[in-house]
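Notes from the 1:1 (GR / supervisor)

We went over the backlog. Supervisor wanted to see one worked example end to end before approving the batch request, so GR pasted a single chain during the call. The sequence is below; no edits were made to it. Supervisor asked that the structure be written out right there so they could see what the output format looks like.
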Amino acid sequence: MTVHARRVALVTDSELGRQALMALLGGALNPLIVTIDVSQSSQPLIDYLGQHHDSQLDMWVLDSSAQHDENILHILCDDSDKPILVNDELPTAQDEQRYKLWQKRLLQKVESLSLENDGLRRQRLGTAEQVWVLAASLGGPAMIKRFLSALPQGLPIAFVYAQHIEANFDHYLSGGMGGEQAYPLQQISTEHSLVAGETLVVPADAQLRFLPFGQVIKTTKAWQGPYQPAIDQVVAELAKEYRKKLGVIVFSGTCNDGEIGCRVVKACGGQVWAQSPASCVSAAMPEAAINTGCVSFQGSPEELALQLAQIIKQPVAQQEVIG
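Structure output shown during the call:
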């Protein structure tokens, strides 16, 4: 059975509960995205939902010792569609047998809720008919935001966003995009599934493996070469799996990373597009792609989005465009 990372938000007003639940839920499988202290009022929770909504979470864990339980539960139910796990007991550590049993049961509930949530997510978002790589370097985040903002909702596409960036800074990309994106950016902890309507951010600190049925695994191997992530490698790996159902758009950037990947995608029958050099912060990367002769369409981020929305209605074999 595939085990998925569960991104957890913890809500509690108990320091004892916070310490126990952080020790239990922290780690690669259950990364704690945020811990919200409601000991004084529910306002920190309201503020968090107002700023971040719940796009970066898989579930809430509510420590039921919180004094404002009922009010907090109402807030979560009203403002979030992510599942809520209520922890209704906290044995003392001195009662070792009971404490271990509590830990085991809570982790089982988290895993069960996560699997159910993943199934609902797939059902809600649907299977991706195509995968498109958004490749970018200098100036990329602003261009990608313009592109995604111009896309209509509901396209049967999963996006993979490969942005040159310093390790440990890639999670800032999601915040810069805003939570209102129709194709929200998703970070990967250990495993992920590509589904329509989401944008997976390729991490800068480790390589990814792309498997059948949309499965993606984050390895422990660092990227080779001068760029993190290595766009050529990302594109080539995806091309082997998706072939004609893969597209790549090369956005603003200062180097030629992606040039080889463009040739691989073209050879596999996929599509290669580029941002028009005149609309870039740095045109080197799209120009390198254009010089391969593989690019069939180029335009501003908005023009690229409009073109993609139009061709996705056609069968794959008829989607080739001449720009």
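Supervisor's comment: The longest strand covers residues 130-136.
Batch request approved.
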